[in-house]
Amino acid sequence: MKAGTAEQGERRGGGAWPGLRAEHVVGMGALLSAAALVERVPRFVPARHYILCHASPALDHLTLTALALVLTAGIAAVAGGIVMQSRRTPHPALPVVWLVIVAALLIAADGVDAHGEALAAERAATAFAEGACDYIPQDYGATPGWFFW
Questions:
Q1: Are 54 and 134 in contact (CB under 8 A)?
Q2: One-character DSSP codes across 72-108
Q3: What is the pLDDT of residue 49?
Q4: Tens digit of pLDDT for each residue in 39-83?
Q5: Which of 3, 4, 19, 92 could in theory staple to 15 by disulfide, Cβ–Cβ 3.0 to 4.6 A?
Q6: The whole model's pTM is what?
Q7: What's the pLDDT score for residue 46?
Q8: Which of 96, 102, 101, 104 is nearest to 14 (CA)?
Q9: From CA 38, how far away is CA 31, in angstroms rounded?
Q10: Residue 49 dihedral angles phi and psi, to the nearest 5°
Q11: pLDDT tens for residues 76-123?
Q12: How far apart are CA 27 and CA 95, in angstroms?
């Protein structure tokens, strides 16, 4: 076998860390994405709750955006593994690049969640006027993130 080429049936990986292969990128990225998704479920992780007088479409939008970023991180992990497997000789830094993409998406999701929590805290701090609130006030659960506290 020549240096830098892969024989048929051989697993291909990055050269920056010779032991880091496509399945590692998929596994680590999927594990991080799954942990980030589970972290956003208030049943599994204690959440700070904010009672809001009126429903907030902005908070709903931020919640969906954060979830979309987490799911995109999982998809990026799988896509990185596929790209690494499909290339004859992947660039040595390719595994690290895909893991950085996954991490950046998860950090962005935490940032969106932190912004949503700040918005919920601001809206919950306003005084409730009797009879002015929605019939059922909105309960916003803010789960703690990994990067923004």
A1: yes
A2: HHHHHHHHHHHHHHHSSS--TTHHHHHHHHHHHHHHH
A3: 83
A4: 887 777 777 888 888 778 898 899 899 999 999 999 998 888 888
A5: 92
A6: 0.77
A7: 76
A8: 96
A9: 10
A10: -110, 140
A11: 988 888 887 776 766 777 788 888 999 999 999 999 999 998 898 888
A12: 12
Q: Which residue reads 């080429």 in tokens?
A: 5
More confident site: 72 or 137? 72
At 138, which helix (H) or strand (E)? Answer: strand 138-142
For residue 11, the SS3 value is: coil
What type of residue sits at position 38? V
What letter represents residue 36's amino acid?
Answer: A
Residues whose CB is less than 8 angstroms from the CB of residue 1 and which lie 6 or more positions away in sequence, other chains included? 7, 10
φ and ψ of 50, to 5 deg: -125, 130
Cβ(92)–Cβ(3) under 8 Å? no
The HSE-up count of residue 77 (CA atoms within 13 Å, CB side) is 23
8 A C-beta contact, residue 14 and residue 22? no
